[in-house]
Amino acid sequence: MSEEMIQALFIIVDDPEKTEQVLEVLLECEMRGATVIETQGMAKVLSANIPIFFGLKGLMTKEHAHNRTIFALSKHPEKINQAMEKLSTMFHNFAEACTGLMFVVPVVKAVGLGRKFIQNQSEQDNG
After folding, report:
1. What is the pLDDT of residues 4-16, one digit of tens each?
2. What is the CATH classification number for the domain harbouring 15?
């Protein structure tokens, strides 16, 4: 039994208004089922909660209150590569400070990937 290589593409975007554009790129690259999470960077949390780091607040004028972390799993590395190329172009390789980042990690095991909705037989009979 050969196991398929599954990878997870993570994209962290500082500007929440860019989330929809990122999702559109994923759809263009035939990547479906992405998850979007509202997140905060470490500096933001420390500057708000720990007095010694309060001075960091002034350095983060560009940073929004929350980032968006978007991740999607795929069995197709070429789709991940295509998405990364398009997103790199969109975000100018994330070269500007505090714009975000993206990375890929291997997924050792996954349950539910590629699962399709199957309607219950009793629901079919009643509908």
Report:
1. 789 999 999 999 9
2. 3.30.70.120
Host domain of residue 72:
6-126
- Residue 61 in any domain: the answer is yes
From edge to edge, which strands make up the β-sheet containing 67-74? Answer: 35-39, 67-74, 6-13, 100-107
| Mean pLDDT of the 93-100 span | 88
Residue 104 lies in a domain: yes
SS (H, E, C) the chain: CCCCCEEEEEEEECCHHHHHHHHHHHHHCCCCCCEEEEECCHHHHHHHHCHHHHHHHHHHCCCCCCEEEEEEEECCHHHHHHHHHHHHHHCHHHCCCCCEEEEEEEECCCCCCCCCCCCCHHHHHHC
Q: For the chain, how many structural domains are there in total?
A: 1
Residue 121 lies in a domain: yes
The pTM assigned to this predicted structure is 0.76
